[in-house]
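Appendix B. Chain record.
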Amino acid sequence: MSRVRASFWTMATSTMFVVVSSLVAMVSTPLLLRWLGVARYGAFRALSDSLGYLTLLDLGLGGSVMACLARAIHHEDPAETRKTLFNAVVSYLWIAVLMLACGLALVGLLPAVVKQVGLHPREVRLAGLILLAPVLLIPFSAFRSLAEVQQRGSIVNILLTGQSLLTTACLLTAAHQGWGLAGQSLGIVVAQVPATAFLMGRGLRRVPGLSGEKRDAETTSRLWSLNWQTLVQNVCGRIGLLSDNIIVSWGMGAAAVAPFYLTQRLGYLVQTQLQGVGNSTWASLMELHYRKQHRLFEERLVELTALVSGLGAVGLGVVFAYNRDFVGFWTGSASFAGETLTLIACFNGWIWAISSLWGWPISGAGEVGRWVPFALLFVSVNLAASVMLVKALGWVGPLLGTTAGFLLVNSWAQPRLLRQIFGVPVWSIWRAALKPLRWALPYSALVYVIAHAHQASGVRVLPEMGLAGAGGVGLWWLCGLKPESRNQWQSRLRIAFARS
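Structure tokens predicted for this chain:
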């Protein structure tokens, strides 16, 4: 499969994943709120986010595995690929043991984190114990890394879509049967098994002879050579991603997590789709880098930055305009935490998507160690501001902490590293990020005025949002692309849909 076809289908299936996840979330969340209750729903969000920190105990191996696999595959070295994959699985086995040990210790502390009147500590601990089961699948995550590095992210996205549907079915069944937090945990565990098994089977077929490999000290040392830098980056990313719900639970109580989470949900789905651009294209960018096609690398990164910025601005602009009506229709007006929170969340989603795109090449090239000091600075600013502001400002406090981290650190540090590592001029990528705002912000303002001129009550909010989003995509095509760029996109679409 060509680089163009692979990237296109990865982005297309990523879109499918987000759309399907959005639809099932829209249908399932009101039912979960009704059957679980707002307090228990919020408690489970805080509980799962707390245990999510266990993934940091991979000690940064995941990013190192992807970088080493990318180097072996793009250098067309099957023996090195097989050796790297085998030693990655063996290393992950030891990590799984460490995660289980630490997870068992953490479970005892969960009732202190998930504070909620009427929620028995025994229920919280049982749910936590069940959520430890996916740790047993950790060794097989190397096969997902293999698929992504081989530019088969479309397969991963299709599996994740199926996993999302299965997860939702399990969660709804458990909630309806009254199985409480333990049932929610069990639903998440069961849904992860099929996708993991499929990727493992695919990997064993694509890399024959894996069972005959032996542990190699040199390969293992290479895998662990980047792990501590990657670990620090993962810790910082995990804190930035999951700390908000925990801080709100600590500062305002578990019941406050539900409206905080639900108000951001629509914007987060758009942000996830935008981040999928970087996840879909980083392997192709690394191929250009290893082939020393530096000029083409710069052109592609600039183009992708403009794409994420323009579509992100109009997409999140539509979210800001209609979020009040959407949340009211979806889960009830009591779940809406306000337009100020929505605006800050949308801005964070826009800049986070761009930051994610810029971060992928740095990690993929094995240069994550150069980002570590800035990642530490980002998370320090983010966490300190979030903790200080949650008591004073409530829900918006943690979001402003994230905003401060992006503006004070990432906005200049990432472009600086991209220039040092790949020779990409700082101003060229920032110009690509800011230029689309000339047409995206006026359009978003127009959509906001139209949305607030009347109340799109009930199901009517959905087609209005769809029309506004489609109008934004059309505007990107007309104003965000030059004629030659439109011709390029048409050519890429023809290649993507051409018969193999």
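Further analysis of this model is presented in Appendix C.
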